[in-house]
Specification:
477 residues, 27 strands, six-stranded antiparallel β-barrel, alpha+beta
Length: 477
């Protein structure tokens, strides 16, 4: 048998342990003993912002007489009241990105403001004007009205920020300017329903009312986020959200150069690819963005994209979740020709599309809400446990959907219907299993065919209550 020297084994073991520990420590951030030096260096670049605006209200001329809530005469009565003006003020934070006094903050901090006063380094105050503002990303850029020089901060690479990294926030919470809080990055790529383009960094660094617009710094002192929102209205609960610096910088540069944003526009309305839809389309997994409709004369229509396509990749970037596509498209240069990989008819194809500009498109305008519909003869679809009626010309005109549209309006959905959690009353079914629906018999026939298969999943195309074309995959019982 081979004899091995025990001292040699012990030496090798200790060497391996030392190498492992050194490697682990070198790839992780050490716990800082203090944030004092970093905070002292950064404080002069973080500002407090106060705004004022005039709010006009009207008092009730007949205080002892009230119409019932919701009465059409209620608003009319208010119009005869005496106009009263009052000054409303708000507080926020911001940070200096240029020695000439260019400041970044949130749009909601300065929106509607008549006067903006910025306090720098806790004492000096300056008037500021808006260079540009973008409600969609909630970012605004200000210029201080002075010829003084300031200490700017620089942006870091937010894509390199990792969950668990140390961060500090500096801002003006509740008017207490120059407040420093610390924490870690709790999560990435968060969506909370505040804006169209959401890819927030979540942090447990204390963020409260008044912190909005302030910077989130990494341990190098670089800005990796703009503090924008908190969870709940009662103040900090350890969950705050910041706009990543990489996304923000694109908007900021455009606001400084043009005074407005210039976002790429594809011209599609999209939705999530559910497991049911992926099964019907024979896609390997639920991924990508399903094209619910294509805007007329849009870049997508000109490039050959069709409703029902699933966008898997845009300009070389894979689309795993639907929410990723608008963010990627928006940051792509207007006029650029891009490759878009699409899943259509159970195979992958590529389309070349020249991007338009979102801000000049019809997609940028607010669509009208759905009003009451005229009634008609109703039919019951027993297998789906819904009641429907045929779409008529008045419906098409009222809903402002494409002419020549045929379909069924859902007037009732039973509580035990397989559609109960997916579709609302007043939605219009226009296709089932990619076949057009003109009558209740059409729908009944297709549902029976699906029930006779092993899959038992039906793919419906509808117009929802906002008159948006949507694809819905339903597992039948």
């Amino acid at each position: 048998m081979l004899k091995i020297n025990m001292k040699k084994i012990k030496f090798i073991f200790l060497a391996l342990v030392f190498t492992f520990n050194f490697s682990t420590l070198s790839n992780s951030q050490s716990v800082p003993s203090s944030f004092a030096d970093l905070a002292e260096r950064l404080m002069p670049s973080v500002v407090n912002i106060s705004t004022t605006q005039t709010v006009v209200t009207r008092s009730n001329p007949f205080p002892n007489f009230q119409f019932p809530p919701g009465s059409p005469f209620e608003d009319m009565l208010k119009e005869f009241g005496t106009p009263q003006e009052r000054q409303s003020s708000a507080l926020g934070s911001g940070f200096i990105i240029n020695e000439k006094g260019i400041i970044v903050t949130n749009n909601h901090v300065i929106e509607g403001a008549e006067d903006i006063v910025v306090q720098v380094n806790g004492d000096k105050e300056f008037k500021a004007k808006v260079i540009g503002a973008d409600p969609l990303s909630d970012i605004a850029v200000l210029q201080l009205d002075t010829k003084e020089k300031f200490i700017p901060v620089k942006f870091g690479d937010s894509d390199k920020a990792r969950i668990g990294d140390w961060v500090i926030a500096i801002g003006n919470p509740f008017g207490f300017g120059g407040t420093v809080t610390s924490g870690i990055i709790s999560a990435r790529n968060r969506s909370i329903g505040l804006s169209r383009y959401e890819d927030y960094i979540q942090t447990d660094a204390s963020i409260n009312s008044g912190n909005s617009g302030g910077p989130l710094f990494d341990m190098n002192g670089d800005v990796i986020g703009i503090n924008t929102a908190i969870l709940g209205r009662s103040g900090n609960v350890g969950i705050g959200f910041s706009i990543p610096s990489n996304s923000a910088k694109i908007v900021i540069d455009q606001l400084i150069e043009f005074g407005e944003t210039k976002r790429g526009w594809l011209g599609v309305r999209i939705q999530d690819v559910t497991k049911e839809i992926a099964d019907v389309e024979k896609l390997d997994e639920p991924r990508g963005a399903l094209v619910a409709s294509v805007a007329e004369n849009s870049p997508s229509e000109k490039g050959g994209v069709k409703a029902g396509d699933i966008i898997l990749e845009f300009n070389g970037e894979r689309i795993q979740e639907m929410k990723e596509l608008p963010i990627i498209v928006a940051r792509t240069e207007v006029g650029k020709k891009v490759d878009v990989k699409i899943w259509r008819n159970k195979r992958e194809i590529t389309k070349k599309i020249t991007l338009g500009r979102l801000e000049t498109s019809e997609d940028f305008k607010v669509k009208a809400k759905v009003e009451e519909k005229p009634s008609s003869i109703e039919s019951t679809i027993e297998s789906l446990k819904i009641t429907v009626r045929k779409l008529n010309n008045e419906d098409v005109k009222l809903r402002k959907i494409p002419n020549q549209t045929n379909g069924l309006i859902i007037t009732k959905i039973e509580n035990d219907s397989p559609l109960i959690n997916s579709i609302e009353v007043n939605s219009i079914i226009i296709e089932a299993q990619k076949k057009r629906i003109s009558s209740a018999d059409d729908l009944n026939k297709i549902v029976k065919q699906v029930l006779n298969t092993n899959q038992k999943t039906i793919l419906l195309v509808i117009f929802n209550n906002q008159n948006q074309r949507r694809y819905i995959g339903i597992k039948l019982k």
